[in-house]
Amino acid sequence: MQSFEIDKTDLLRIKTALEGNDAELQEVLKEYHASEIAILFEKLPQEAKERIINLLSTQIATDVISEMDEEAHPEELLIGLDPEKRTEIVEEMDYDVATDIISQLDKEDQQEILEDIDQEDATSIRALLNYDEDTAGGLMNSEVICVNINLDKKEALDEIIRQSEEMEEFYTIYVVDDNDILKGIVSIKDIIKARGEAKVRTLVQTDFVYVKAELDQEEVAKLISQYNLTTIPVVDDQMKLLGRITVDDIIDVMEAENTEDILKISGVSEDEELSGNWQDAVKSRLPWLVINLGTAFLAASIIRNFDATVKNLAVISAYMTIIAGMGGNTATQALAVTVRRISLSDLSDRQAYNTVFKELLVGLVNGACNGLIVFAVAYFYDANPMLGLVLFLAMTGNLIVAGLTGASIPLILKRVGIDPAVASSIIITTFTDCIGFFLPLWLASKLLL
Amino acid sequence: MQSFEIDKTDLLRIKTALEGNDAELQEVLKEYHASEIAILFEKLPQEAKERIINLLSTQIATDVISEMDEEAHPEELLIGLDPEKRTEIVEEMDYDVATDIISQLDKEDQQEILEDIDQEDATSIRALLNYDEDTAGGLMNSEVICVNINLDKKEALDEIIRQSEEMEEFYTIYVVDDNDILKGIVSIKDIIKARGEAKVRTLVQTDFVYVKAELDQEEVAKLISQYNLTTIPVVDDQMKLLGRITVDDIIDVMEAENTEDILKISGVSEDEELSGNWQDAVKSRLPWLVINLGTAFLAASIIRNFDATVKNLAVISAYMTIIAGMGGNTATQALAVTVRRISLSDLSDRQAYNTVFKELLVGLVNGACNGLIVFAVAYFYDANPMLGLVLFLAMTGNLIVAGLTGASIPLILKRVGIDPAVASSIIITTFTDCIGFFLPLWLASKLLL
C-alpha cells in the first residue's frame, strides 16, 4: 500500500467521466476513498466539484469536504451547493470540522448556513466559533462520550451505546458529576471487564491530563506527544467538560507548525500559503528582503572603508566573498541545530552554555580545515604565502564567530521572548558578513600592504 | 495545564531528595508522572538514575525508560540495572519499545537480556529486531487484539477481554481467518451493539488501509495522516497480520522527519544528533562546507576575471556582495516554499510549471523593488546614476534567476530521484553567487569603464 498520489491517470479518468452521464461518473467515483476524492478536487473546477458532491451519498460527500485541505477552500464549495444538500452535509459533519470550514466564510454566509441546520447543531457550532482557531477551544470537538459517575455498569454501557450512535469512533469515555464537572476517564475495556454490579465511581481513573480551552495549540500538541495520548479533554475554568481533542487533529497542527518553522527559518512569513498567488508571496517576503538589504549595506560599508586595500590587491575581493559565504553556511548549520533543539525542549543554563561552547569548537575546527585549503590555494595558485596566512586567519576567525553567533543568538532571543526561528538568520548573516569582510581586509591592510 | 518543562526547582528537589534516604526520595518521586521523570533523567548521573529506577514500581520504571528520549540512551541505563530488575522491566515493556532500545546495544548485551526474559517475549523481540528501524516493520508492535472471523459475539468479546489483559489500550480489533490472514477490522462498539447471535463475519469491515512491513516510515506517516487513522495493521506478502502501528509512534516519526528536514535544508547531515558532541558535529558538517568552499571558488573565479573592473571601480566590490547576498536570500525563500510543498504532496506538471512561473514573477518584482533602493543609494550617495542603472539591472536579473532556480532545482531533483532538501541549497547558492558577481561586474565593464 502506498499513500495516494494524484496521478495523471486518475485525473484523466475523472475528467473523462465528467464528460459522460451521472451513472458513469458514479461508477468511477466508487473506486475512490473520500480522502482521495478530496485530493483530486484540488485539480477540478468548481462546477465539477459541485456535480460530484451532489452525486455522492451524504456520508461520503461530508467526508470529502471534511478532508479537503484548508488551502483548497472547502467553504467556497460548501456555500456554492444547493441549500438542502448543504444542510445535510453540515449536519453530518463533526462540529470541529464544520466550525473550521464555516469560520472562513463572512458573517452573512455563516448565518445562512447556521439558520438552515438543526438548532442543537447550530448552537454547538456557534459556541465553537467563539474560540480562537489556534487554541484548544478552536481545535476541540464538542461531541464526546460522557457518563455520570453515579451510574452502574449496565446503565453506563447503555449510555455509551446510545451516545456512540452519532460518532464514528471513540477512544476514551469521560466521567462527569451531576454538574458536568469532569471527574476522570474510564476505558470501554474496564467497563466491559467490570463485575455486573460495579459502579462507574469505582472504575474511574482520576489521574488524567486535561487542557483549558484557551491553551495554544502548540502546547496541546506537546502534551499529546509527551504523554502519548490519543485524546485529551478540554475544560473551562470550573473544570466543566467542553469537548475533546483527538490525536489526528494534532497531526494536522504538527504539519502546519513544521511548515511554519521551515518558512520562518528561511525568511518567509509564517502565514504565506504554500500555494498562494505571487502578489501574496511578494507581500510576505519583500519586507524581510528590504531589512536584509539594509544589513547588507552595513556589511558593504566595511568594504568601502578598505577602498585602498581593494585597489591594491583586487584578488582580496574575490577571497573575502568566500570567507563571508563560508561564515554564513557555518552559522546556518549551528542555527538550525540550536533552533531545533529549542523547539523540542527548553534548555537549562548549563545546556545552553554547553551548546554555545560546542558550536564555538566546531567553528574553530571547521574554520581551520577550510582555512588550510584557502591557504593552499593562495600559496600555490597566487604564489603568495602571506596572503595565504591572512586568509587562513580570517577563515578560522569568521567560522568561530559563525558558530558562536549561530548558537547564542537564538538562545538569547528565546530568553527575551522573541521567536528564535524568525529573527535569528538575519542577525547572524549580518555578523558573518561583517566579520567575513572585515577580517581579510583588515589583516591584508596590516600584513600585506 | 502546561506541558512539563524542566525547571530548576524540580531538578533541585530531586537532587536534594537524592541526598536523603530511600523513603524520602520515594515521596518526592510520587509527585511526578513517568514521562516527567524521563525528562528529569536527562540531567541526572547514571548512579542516580539507577537508584531511582530501583525504587519505582516495575510498571512506573518501565514507563520511565520507555519514555526516555533516544538521545538520552535508555539502553545504557537498562544494561546497567541488576539483571532481575532489568528482566522485569523488559517483560513489562511494549515489544516495539523494547526492540528499539535493545537494538542500540551490541549483540552480546542483546543476547544477555533476551536470554533472561520470558521466551515468548524474546521470540517476538528477536523477530522485530530483523526489521529496518525506519520501516513499518521496525515501527510496529506485534501485540494486537485479533479475533477469528468465525466467532460469534459472545466468543469474540471473551477473546477481546482475555487478550486485552496484557495491553493498556486498544483501538481497533483485527479479524483474521484460520490461517492468520487479515480479513478486516471491527470496532468494539459494533461488537457491543450487535445482537447476541451475531457473527464476527457479519460485523467485519473489509475495506481498510494496511501496510507491508517493508514500507518506509515516512510513507506510513503520510497514510495515517491522510486517512486520519488511529492505528494501521502491518502485514507480510501473504497478508498475514504481523502487528500494528499506532498514531503516537507516528508523532515521534513526524518530529524526527521534521528535524531532518530543517537540518538538511541548512546543510547539516540528517543523522547528526541535536545534542551530540563536537567531534560528531564536525564529521557531519565539514564535508558539506568543503563542497561549498569548492563552489565558492567557482563564484570567486568570476571576480578574478574582472580584476581591471575591480581596480578601477573599487566600490563595485562592495555592491556585488549585496547583490549576490540578496540573490541567496530570495532563492532560499523560494526553495523553502517549494521544498515544503513537495514534501506535503506531489505536484503535477502543471502545478510545477505554475510554481516556477510564480517564483520568477516574485523574483522580478522583489528584484525591481530592491533594485530601486540600490539605484537610489548609488545616485545620491555615490553620485553615479550610471552605476545606479548597472546595479538596478544586476539586482533585478539576479533575483529573477534566484526565484527561477529556487523553485525549479528542487522540482528537478525530485523528478530525478534526489532528495530536494539536501542538495538544493548548495546548487542555488552557487547560481545566485555566480550571477550575482557576474552581472554587476560585466555590466559595469560594458557601461561604466
From TrEMBL, chains A, B:
A GO cellular-component term linked to this record: plasma membrane
Topological type in the membrane: Multi-pass membrane protein
Compartments it resides in: Cell membrane; Membrane
The organism of origin for this protein: Mucilaginibacter phyllosphaerae
Assembly information from the UniProt record: Homodimer.
Lineage: Bacteria, Pseudomonadati, Bacteroidota, Sphingobacteriia, Sphingobacteriales
Endpoints of the signal sequence: none
CDD domains: CBS_pair_Mg_transporter
Residues passing through the membrane, by range: 286-304, 316-339, 360-381, 387-409, 421-443
Highest rank taxon of the organism: Bacteria
Family: Belongs to the SLC41A transporter family.
Protein function: Acts as a magnesium transporter.
Domain CBS: 140-203, 204-260
GO MF, one annotated term: magnesium ion transmembrane transporter activity
Gene: mgtE
Record key words, sorted: CBS domain, Cell membrane, Magnesium, Membrane, Metal-binding, Transmembrane, Transmembrane helix, Transport
The name this protein goes by in its record: Magnesium transporter MgtE
